[in-house]
Amino acid sequence: MWGVWKSVRAYREDPEWQYRKRESRDWVKAFGVPGHPFGPRGNHVKHVLEGRVRGYEATLFHLAAVHQGGRHPTDVSMYAVAVLTLPGRLPATSASVASLVRWLGTEPLPPRAGTPVHLPSRHKPRMVTCSVDPAFAERVLTEQVIRMTADATMGWRLHEDRMIGWIKDHQPYERLIALAETMAEILAEFPASVWQQGPTGQEREERQAR
Length: 210
What we know:
Elements: H1 2-11, E1 18-23, H2 25-28, E2 43-53, E3 56-69, E4 72-85, E5 93-97, H3 98-101, E6 117-118, E7 127-131, H4 134-140, H5 143-151, E8 155-159, E9 162-168, H6 173-188, H7 201-209
Antiparallel strand pairs: 1-2, 2-3, 3-4, 4-9, 5-7, 5-8, 6-7, 8-9
């Protein structure tokens, strides 16, 4: 933990970044709770850092995701999380190394995202992949993207106009910036056509309900 605290002290005084010690549970809801990597019984966010990474607005933070299971009434999984703001909304989609999220006991996507279609995975380490739009997922979840995700031992999820990425345990900001850079590299693998597509399944359902 010494490396984490040393990093926090350095970056909270960096003029290129904005630091906040903690955030409320309501603030977390903007990221599609309880989709991965958030817990179904609560989420505690600390050491929020905001700035830019590879041209994207980036939010970095430490997450304690509370879930049920194990020997105790509640268990907590620790993550380091990076969020990139995207130039447009994309269909809810997720890819993660399975070991990172197996204890959460929740669907990869939040309930309002729509019904996720779990996609087959023949990779090692075992991956968890799903999307509300299988045709979109086929275009973006290429072998290269899956390999990049696995090599970084990370998970990521598309939620509206954000990409949320996570790695295990609370990490120094240098590791979080590297995570955000990997996310930007994954986004660079997406074909240009995905940014011009029509409304997502959830948006179509909302329009039909009006």
